Amino acid sequence: MTLGVNLKSAPMSQFLAEEFRSEQLGLSVKELTQDIILNNNLEFDIDGVWVSRVEEAGASSLGGLYVDDIILAINDKKIANLEQFKKTVEEINLTKAKYIQIFVQREGKTQFVFINTDYE
Length: 120
What we know:
The chain is built from three helices and seven strands, in the order E-E-H-E-H-E-E-H-E-E. It has a single domain (19-116), classed as PDZ domain (Pdz3 Domain). The radius of gyration is 16 Å and the shape is elongated. Strands 1, 2, 3, 4, 5, 6 and 7 form a seven-stranded antiparallel beta sheet that branches. It is α+β, with helices and mostly antiparallel strands. 21% of the residues lie in helices and 32% in strands. The relative contact order is 0.18.
């Protein structure tokens, strides 16, 4: 008996996912991967990015952002993936906004976090 099998690549792990670090905001984020979604009991169709690091005493930390938060939007702009996050952060750096509003999901609940920036 001969069987045909279609092989797919294994889902990307959070450890292999691309990470983006914003020094100005004092945080690092990663694309949502299947293991992040499962570990945080998230819906499989969720959009956003996962906060992988928050610098102690950095702007994001002082604003109340935590590791494991899922960033859903920044300044009312939906963040579907890492590329949109990067683009939005670049726009913020260009406009030198005094604060940014981040809409996050944390432990199954959503909330706003406000971060004061210190552009000189």
